[in-house]
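Please check this:
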Amino acid sequence: MLKGRIHSLETFGTVDGPGIRFVLFMQGCLLQCQYCHNPDTWNLSGGKEMTVEEVLSEIEPYLNYYRPSGGGLTVSGGEATLQAPFVTELFREAKKRWNLHTTLDTNGYNEGDKIRDLLDVTDLVLLDLKHIDNEKHIKLTGKPNDRMLNMARWLSDHGRSMWIRHVFVPGIHDDEQDLRELGRFIGSLQGVEKFEILPYHQMGIYKWQELGWDYPLDGVPSPTEEQIEWAYRIIHEGEREAAEQREVHVN
């Protein structure tokens, strides 16, 4: 029987997709983001094993909240695509039984063709782009960003709906050229329904301390509203530049 390793679940999520949502956090991640507020999800062998039926039984009591709100089921992590067969079956059954809206929250560290079965039963992808600059991405996460950018292009080329999210950490994400380049990249994509900047926060520091790990961003403040507004402005300028370039090529 197919089982997944589950870190935790949330029955009334309101930020991981449209409407009110059941959010399932999968165990395991290959990235080690310096700002991660759930480093306890990294361990691939941690968490609690659950079957698809067990997860569905957790969802069912709350269906009357999810469907009228335009919500549904979101699977996050950790990194959900590391357990793609389990998530695929979960999404397939949620659609078959209740026609429930499905959202996949991913860092993009996988290949679209390899997880196509999962993406075929996914209504919306929340794609986290950690950093547009490859060297800075490696320093921030421990991995290069080529897979993430390729995933974004795959979703764009295959007509998939996505929201792009970008955590903003002062001192890491406040280079104007990087932000403009991120905007240009987003502007080159099809299917981006929403772009969100997620302000960095320190709420996960205690988890690093519980694990006995040094927190790499100790002392780094959350960004101000002015910094976030400035970042949005620069990114949107980059998006407009990409749109103008597309028009030139078309004409």
